[in-house]
């Protein structure tokens, strides 16, 4: 009997020790996440955006010279950071041919364009891919006026750069993500979600191995609904395909950021139908869980007045950190998140 009691006590002690070890590991992981999230700053986001949404980039119209300058800016950033191409070598461009674009565009004649793809390989589950996306294009020049697209989607683009840099810092310190991360800047969003459609039809990594898409499209401004309570972001689609992803998103926000997560536009009855109007939707159509981060529309939406001086950089910083923390958790958790709900389908619109 004494031997049995001793064995039971030993097992209980070991279990307790194991639980404490797991708790310590979780705490350490949380500390690391906060450490690298802190590298995402309003100052750095602003430095990027005042260049990326400047007149020099001529509104980044798909296939036009300003858009070519934009993709070169993104490529140079990734090369300088030592963040690898998802294709290999110094080729960061997934070419999207004009013929394909014009067959799928809503109108007009487009020239060859490209998605920009950068990649950090996972340390333990490299074949499982977490995608973080933002569209690189905007409206270009109309009637002699440059549509700079600072919020739409310069804000998401520079957020993606800062998130990539934070993950690279972690990787260099031996804290790289367990799953691989694809930093995906898509073209032609304003022409009908074209770059993301092209990617999902011609994926660099099998869609079956794609864990989720966290899509950032307009996260630098405050809409009229929140003018008195600016600490918010709209989340769209987080619960539509994966209960697990939604719960992770909520828990991460509560733990680190305490941003008001507004689900107004997640309602299927909302007439704006934003769920179907940004690049995450092309992943969702393929049963890949998504979250769309969005600040809502404002008076400068699709206007030449959408300029970088109107961005709230502290808000942009905090929203970017939220995406980073969510990606960190999804990339580092033991089990892959599961899509447990039916796909909702509708024609994409912008």
The low-pLDDT segments are: 1-16
Structural class estimated from helices and strands: alpha/beta
How would you sum up the major sheet?
Answer: 9 strands, mixed
Strand content: 15-25%
Q: What is the straight-line distance between the termini?
A: 73 Å
- Return the domain count: 1
Organism: Polaribacter filamentus
GO molecular function, one term: metalloexopeptidase activity
Domain Peptidase M28: 115-325
InterPro entries: EF_Hand_1_Ca_BS, M28_fam, Peptidase_M28
Summarize the structure.
The chain is of the alpha/beta class and 350 residues long. It has helices at 2-37, 42-52, 65-81, 98-104, 150-172, 194-201, 243-257, 280-284, 313-332, and strands at residues 84-85, 93-96, 113-120, 125-135, 140-142, 145-147, 179-186, 210-216, 232-236, 260-262, 290-294.
Please describe what this structure looks like:
The chain is of the alpha/beta class. It has a single domain (26-332), classed as 3-Layer(aba) Sandwich (Aminopeptidase). The protein contains nine helices and eleven strands. The chain has helices at 2-37, 42-52, 65-81, 98-104, 150-172, 194-201, 243-257, 280-284, 313-332; strands at residues 84-85, 93-96, 113-120, 125-135, 140-142, 145-147, 179-186, 210-216, 232-236, 260-262, 290-294. Strands 1, 2, 3, 4, 7, 8, 9, 10 and 11 form a nine-stranded mixed β-sheet that branches. A hairpin with a 2-residue loop joins β5 and β6. α3 (65-81) runs parallel beside α5 and α5 crosses α9 (313-332). Residues 1-16 have low confidence and may be disordered.
């Amino acid at each position: 009997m004494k031997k049995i009691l001793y064995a039971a006590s030993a097992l209980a002690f070991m279990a307790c020790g194991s639980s404490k070890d797991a708790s310590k590991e979780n705490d350490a992981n949380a500390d690391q996440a906060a450490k690298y999230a802190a590298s995402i700053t309003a100052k750095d986001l602003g430095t990027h955006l005042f260049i990326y949404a400047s007149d020099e980039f001529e509104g980044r119209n798909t296939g036009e010279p300003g858009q070519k300058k934009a993709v070169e800016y993104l490529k140079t950033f990734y090369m300088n950071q030592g963040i690898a191409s998802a294709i290999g070598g110094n080729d960061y461009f997934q070419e999207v041919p004009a013929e394909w674009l014009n067959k799928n565009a809503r109108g007009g004649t487009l020239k060859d364009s490209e998605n920009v793809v950068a990649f950090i390989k996972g340390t333990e589950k490299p074949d499982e891919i977490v995608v973080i996306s933002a569209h690189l294009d905007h409206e270009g020049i109309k009637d002699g006026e440059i549509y700079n697209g600072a919020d739409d989607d310069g804000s998401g683009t520079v957020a993606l750069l800062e998130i990539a840099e934070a993950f690279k810092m972690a990787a260099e310190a031996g804290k790289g993500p367990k799953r691989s991360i694809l930093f995906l800047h898509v073209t032609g969003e304003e022409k009908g979600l074209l770059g993301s459609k092209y990617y999902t039809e011609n994926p660099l990594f099998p869609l079956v191995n794609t864990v989720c898409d966290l899509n950032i499209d307009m996260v630098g401004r405050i809409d009229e609904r929140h003018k008195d309570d600016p600490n918010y972001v709209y989340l769209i689609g987080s619960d539509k395909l994966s209960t697990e992803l939604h719960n992770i998103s909520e828990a991460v926000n509560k733990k680190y950021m305490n941003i008001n997560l507004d689900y107004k536009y997640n309602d299927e009855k909302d007439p704006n139908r934003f769920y179907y109007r940004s690049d995450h939707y092309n992943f969702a159509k393929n049963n890949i869980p998504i979250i769309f981060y969005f600040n809502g529309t404002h008076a400068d939406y699709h206007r030449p007045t959408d300029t970088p001086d109107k961005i709230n950089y502290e808000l942009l910083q905090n929203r970017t950190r939220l995406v980073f923390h969510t990606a960190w958790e999804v990339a580092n958790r033991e089990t892959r998140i599961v899509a447990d709900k039916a796909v909702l389908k509708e024609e994409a619109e912008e």
